[in-house]
Prior knowledge:
Number of strands: 16
Strand order of the largest sheet: 3-2-1-16-15-14-13-12
Structural class: alpha+beta
Shape: globular
Distance between the termini: 39 Å
Strand content: 15-25%
Order of helices and strands: HHHEEEEHEEHHHEHHEHEEHEHEEEEEH
Radius of gyration: 21 Å
Number of helices: 13
Amino acid sequence: MRFRHAVFAAVVSSMLGLPLMAQAADPLPRAKPEDVGMSSERLALIAKTVNAEIAREQLPGAVLAIARRGKLVYFETFGFRDKAAGAPMPADAIFNIASMTKPMAAVAGLQLYEQGKLLMDEPVSKYFPKFANMQVAVMDAKRENIIERVPATRKITIQDLFRHTSGLIYGGRGATPVHKLFPEGSGPAAASMTGAEFLDNLATRPLLWQPGSTWDYGFGLDVLGLVVEQITEQSLGQYLQEQVWKPLGMVDTHFLIPADKAARYAKALAVDPDTGRPQTLAALTQKTKFESGGGGAASTASDYLRFALMLMNKGTYGNARILGTKTTEYMLSNQLGPEVRNLVVNADPTRGDYGFGLGLAVRTTPGVVRMMGSVGDFSWPGASGTNWWADPKEELAVVWMAQSPGTIRWKYRQLINALVYQAIVD
């Protein structure tokens, strides 16, 4: 009964334009699905499917925004912002977006690239000299022991940071002795170390791969964020606020959720529905020791849709130009040549067989991959359960906000992808 009341309240709120803040924040004019080649009847399957998942306690709640051909055709809420408290999901709920921070940090870096303040082939050691003489681990045949450390064949470059070819891997993403030497991930690193301590930590570790040889998920965008801070003499959040978030009208995107917005933070289920183990997410209401370009931001569906639309529109949104046209095209082009081993599937099975641009995955083939889309579609999800993608060929941008941090998040990435694309009928 409580579930029905919560859903009813959310639907009524949406119909009446409440809360007013959420209605005012619409990133695009609204349109009937049929006006942009989508089916209202087929879109209705989304609510039926998602609400069934919530009723089975697989998911606490969600917000889904769909834009096509410059119109907002679907912007709906489901379930609970806080299941334990019975609080329904509002349209302006704030989510821990984890690695969906990465494309925003990449945009910050690319703005400096446009201004000639950094170059792609510059060594990271230009900014942080302790990275000048990195070593690479050599392991035994079973990958159980490090038997030697050899000099890196070349220095880690700025491009390596953008495209995850630095060898600075996430410790929590593997079981080798090299993984065990690195911090677990962006969130734990930012919570426990200052930026300077974090860089010192990374610079003393042996790399898992020779720089430039292998795409493997890691701390590249965190380090890039600190490069942005050094060049601009601002925190990453201050820079993004001035140069990206404010110009785009992203009013609820922060590294630290303000106290007056904390009640809008969406919470995960207390127990992982797959494993039965307790699960929590950092609320981002406490200041971290540095602002993590790899995974430290919070945002809303409306805000992030603006960011996705800016990239799909080659660097512009409304009256704001964030990146140049060619810079945006460069960012959204596959940066992994045939000489680079592609391990994107290890980071996220739903992005297996994608290429990778600068800070996000890029589709290079119409088939093979596990989800529908078009060549040239681009995306990068968050480990907290959030996801988004943009498909320029279909003039489609989608943002899915949910706090489902377990492996069940991969199910919802595929499920929502299928439900959205099946509604295209032109």
